Structure formats: C-alpha cells, structure tokens
TrEMBL record:
The active site is at E386. Keywords: Glycosidase, Hydrolase. One of its GO terms (biological process) is carbohydrate catabolic process. Belongs to the glycosyl hydrolase 1 family. One of its GO terms (molecular function) is beta-glucosidase activity. It comes from the Bacteria. One of its GO terms (cellular component) is cytosol. This is Amygdalase.
Length: 485
C-alpha cells in the first residue's frame, strides 16, 4: 500500500516551543527579580496523582520560598541553563530546520519588581542576543509575553492580577519589549493558556487563595484585567511593530459526552462552551451572553472601567494559538467511573484511547476536531503552539535514545493536522512542546521528557546538562525538510 504524501502549505511554520521559566535558569543573574515560577518546588516521594494537592501555593510555602536563596529544591530556578547554553541549543534547532521557535520573555528580567519606570538593560540585552542568534540560525521568533510567571513583588504588593494597576505595569513591559525588538520579532502571543487562571490562580494570576475571602471573585476579576491587558497589547503591538501579528492562546480542552444520554451531552456542551469563553472575548471582542448566567449563579461581579468594553471590541487578536495534548470525557454523573489526568485538568477515562506514561489520553483525531471547531467558530488563522508527548526516555549503551513512541505520536497528530487543512482550516504553523527536555510546569520534574533533544539532568538536579539528539530529532528534521510526511 502506497503511503499518502501529506505536504503542508507553503510557508508553514514548523518548529518547537519552550518557556523562559522552564529552560533559562539563571534565576538571580544579571539583575533578574524573583518570579512566581521561582516558588515552584519539586516534591520528592509524592505520587503523580497526589502531586497537585502537595504543590498548592499556601502562604506558608510562599514565605519559605521567598526566604530560601538556594535552587536545590526549586528546579525552575535552575532550568536547563538555556540562559548560558542557548547558542548550542539554537544550533541544534537550526540543524533540525526549525522555521520558528516559540519562547517567552521573563517579565522579571526586564522589570525585576514589575513596577519600575526604567527597564533592566542586562535583561533586554539577553533577549537581543537570543533573537539575533535565532535569526542567525534561520529561525523566526514567536514570543509569548506572559508564560506562567510574573514578578513576586506584584503578587505581594498588588495582589497579582486582581488589581487594575497591574494592567498598567504589564503594558509598560509590553511597550518596552515591542519597541526594543520591533525589528527582530513579528509574531507575538499575549498570555499563555489564559484560561488556566481558573484552575491554578497563583501560577497564571499571582493570586494566593488564602489572601482572598472570595477566591472565585478574585480569579475572574484578575482574568478581566488580563483580557484588557491582552487587548491593549494588541493595540500597541500593531502601533509599534510594523507588519506584526499578535494572537491569544487557549488550552484546548475538547470534551466528548460519555454517552448519548442528553444529560451527558449537556455536560460536554457546557464544558466546550466554557472553554470557548476565553477566545470569545479575545476574538469576538465581548463577553459572551452565556457567561451572564454563570456570573449570576456564582455571585461574581466584574468591576470594569467605562472604556473596557470598547477596548475589548476594538482590539481583537489576529490569530488563535492553542495547546492540545488530549481530549476529555464529561458525564453528568461520574461517581465510581475510572478517571484520568491531563494538562492541568482530568476527566472520565475514554475506553477507546491509549494513555501516555503520565496518564494523558492520546487522541490525534481530537486535534482535527479541535481545529475544525475553532476555525468554524472564529474563521481566523490558527497556530498549534503546544503539542507533544511527555515520556520516560532511556539512554542506550551506545548513547542513543530510541524514542519511536514519540515519532508515532507526532506522525498520528500530523496526519490529522493535514486532514484539517484539507477540511479548509487555515493553519499557520506548529511548534511542538518542548523542543528540548525541560523542567515540567506542573511537577517540576525532569524525567517527564518531551524533547527531540535529551538533556542530561535528573529530578534532583544531577547531571552534566549534555545535549543528545534523540531518534525523533532526525525524524522531525526530515518532516520539516519535506514540509510534511
């Protein structure tokens, strides 16, 4: 049987993705301030299923972490030393043929506390060097402005994103980097997985639950401020950066009903509708009607300035970027049903799907569905900026890493991406998560490996940090050179 040749559109942006707080390290170098990501601790001897409750950000934990000047228990403070090793890593990405690399700018490298008038020049120079090196390797930067980190000073003195003043601080940061890098960066993303603030308020919004009587009220007020900040970032990006495109980012949580029982259908519908809430605001430019009932039933009142609705309406994003790792299943009554974990959220197990080493359901067809549903709803360009397989990798005696399981994962997802393009979806590009092994966002462990490149470091921080090409490195290089399968 002849294999179908799946060629992607000319100019398709193949690449990979990383985040500053998971790769850079150098957490207190060259004037960088302390961020929310620097609070994340690696808990030893904790099961994966219990990790989330053991890693909650309590007042006690924050105070202890703020006083601890070491990095032993805080892997994100170490990263994979990308801050010093980026030329080597970018050369490897260039060898693979990356057209683009998604990175983020650490707010605390530019404004250590977040509320300064003048930026930290050493931080600005680092990203100058980084973007120059990317261009040297033929790689176009795709830059996220806020990726799961913000200055701890703003958390402790302003309540994180709950206070309106933080919008002003963030926009000052945005204007600074837009002006500095306007000739080097044309593609931008505002907030990484902006919807995640409702699931982990501290990581996404700098909101410490113990400090608020009504946490939900604080979360949705903080989210509103992020919506406004996102729209204003779009405004100033268009004004400052010639020829720029700036998008939002969503955690795409495609949800199936457990059965055709109307109650299960309704549960799945509501889950998908809520997932669309975040893109409805940023693409359509207004709060959707269905959220009025939600806010009323929750007793949530969003405080707005008179200009807010006009800001949202006038400055919608140019494209939608999103992460997709797995699909979910919803049931009206899930009592006693087998559950699975996922990207910051879990659900009822789907018996038709296999799961990864970390229990995430693998569903390539769900990616095609996600692409079609998003494009049908909004008819704006789409960009898959996170997708990949976290797995245990073994270094063989000859030094090789035979990660055929990762190749199989990508091949299946690429096939469905191509099907979606044939369906009529306008897909700009694809950046795998993460292009190189990095510190896990959720658990701060290293053994959950995503990369095409192996990094010699274990969960306890031991290792040489040597980089090794995996088998998938060469496979993805071939995909890019052929612009498809």
């Amino acid at each position: 049987m002849t294999e179908i040749k799946r060629t992607f559109p000319e100019g398709f942006l193949w690449g990979g993705a990383v985040a500053a707080n998971q790769v850079e390290g150098a957490w207190n170098v060259d004037g960088k301030g302390i961020s929310t990501a620097d609070m994340a601790i690696y808990k030893r001897n904790v099961s994966k299923s219990d990790y989330k409750k053991h890693n909650s950000m309590t007042e006690e934990h924050i105070q202890k972490a703020m006083q601890d000047t070491s990095d032993h228990d805080y892997p994100k403070r170490q990263g994979i030393d990308f801050y010093h090793r980026y030329p080597e890593d970018l050369a490897l990405f260039g060898e693979m043929g990356f057209k683009t690399l998604r990175v983020s700018i650490a707010w605390t490298r530019i404004f250590p506390n977040g509320d300064e008038d003048k930026p930290n020049e050493a931080g600005l120079q680092f990203y100058d060097r980084l973007f120059d090196e990317m261009h040297k390797n033929g790689i176009e930067p795709l830059v996220t402005l806020s990726h799961y980190e913000m200055p701890m000073y703003l958390v402790n003195h302003y309540g994180g994103w709950t206070q309106r003043k933080v919008v002003d601080f963030f926009i000052h940061f945005c204007k600074t980097v837009f002006t500095r890098y306007k000739n080097k960066v044309k593609h931008w993303i505002t907030f990484n997985e902006i919807d995640s603030i409702v699931r982990h308020p501290f990581t996404s919004g700098g909101i410490i639950p113990e400090r608020f009587e009504n946490v939900e009220q604080a979360v949705y007020q903080g989210l509103h401020h992020q919506f406004v900040a996102s729209a204003l970032a779009v405004k100033y990006c268009h004004e400052i950066v010639p020829g720029s495109k700036i998008g939002c980012m969503l955690t795409r949580l495609t949800t199936y009903p457990h059965t055709c029982n109307p109650q299960d259908m309704l549960a799945a519908f509501k889950a998908n509708q809520f997932n669309y809430f975040f893109t409805d605001v940023q693409v359509r430019g207004a709060y959707p009607h269905y959220m009025k009932r939600f806010f009323h039933e929750k007793g949530i009142v969003i405080e707005k300035l008179e200009s807010d609705d006009e800001i949202l309406k006038t400055h919608p994003v140019d494209f939608i970027s999103f992460s997709y790792y797995m699909s979910l299943v919803a049931s009206a009554d899930s009592e006693g049903m087998e559950k699975v974990s996922g990207n910051t959220i879990g659900g009822v197990k789907n018996p038709y799907l296999e799961t990864s080493d970390w229990g995430w359901q693998v569903d390539p067809v769900g990616l095609r569905l996600s692409l079609n549903e998003l494009y049908s709803r909004y008819e704006v360009p789409l960009f898959i900026v996170e997708n990949g397989l976290g797995a245990y990798d073994k270094v063989e005696e000859d030094g090789s890493i035979q990660d055929d399981y990762r190749i199989d994962y990508f091949r299946a997802h690429f096939e469905q991406m191509h099907e979606a393009i044939l369906d009529g979806v306008e897909l700009m590009g694809y950046t795998s998560w993460g292009a190189i092994d990095l510190v896990s966002y959720s658990s701060s462990e290293m053994e959950k490996r995503y990369g095409f490149i192996y990094v010699d470091k274990d969960n306890d921080g031991n290792g040489t940090l040597e980089r090794k090409r995996k088998k998938s490195f060469y496979w993805y290089k071939d995909v890019i050179s052929n612009n498809g399968l």
